[in-house]
Amino acid sequence: xxxxxxxxxxxxxxxxxxxxxxxxxxxxxxxxxxxxxxxxxxxxxxxxxxxxxxxxxxxxxxxxxxxxxxxxxxxxxxxxxxxxxxxxxxxxxxxxxxxxxxxxxxxxxxxxxxxxxxxxxxxxxxxxxxxxxxxxxxxxxxxxxxxxxxxxxxxxxxx
Length: 159
Hints:
Blueprint: H1 5-15, E1 24-28, E2 34-41, E3 53-59, E4 62-68, E5 71-75, H2 80-89, E6 95-101, E7 106-111, E8 115-121, E9 130-133, E10 138-142, E11 148-152, H3 155-158
Antiparallel strand pairs: 1-2, 2-3, 3-9, 4-5, 4-8, 6-7, 7-8, 9-10, 10-11
């Protein structure tokens, strides 16, 4: 099953509220996972839990590249030190747009100062490409393949 224009419109409607918010808490997780926070900080549920924003973007099981202008700052398979510097470049930048592409949800997150985070799907049958945790407690999961879902999730159980 392929990503349809209807799918793109539905997902775009769900992600549009994050546009124009500044990224904060930019972090490199296990492997090449990236997390970004948007919106106001939410109260933490415990002493060991990180503070998250109203929106929490988790770049999960996909290849990705961070660019500035015509320069590649880092990609998901680069040395960790190089990736950490590139991820920190996203800190404080406003998210200007999110573009979604068929057939498998490749995505371009466009930030201020011509900085781009491009994600490329690599799984067709397992593992989400990226997830966006929403202020209403729902999570948008994009991937694997052309699939997507929007359902309730307890952020404390997944992050």
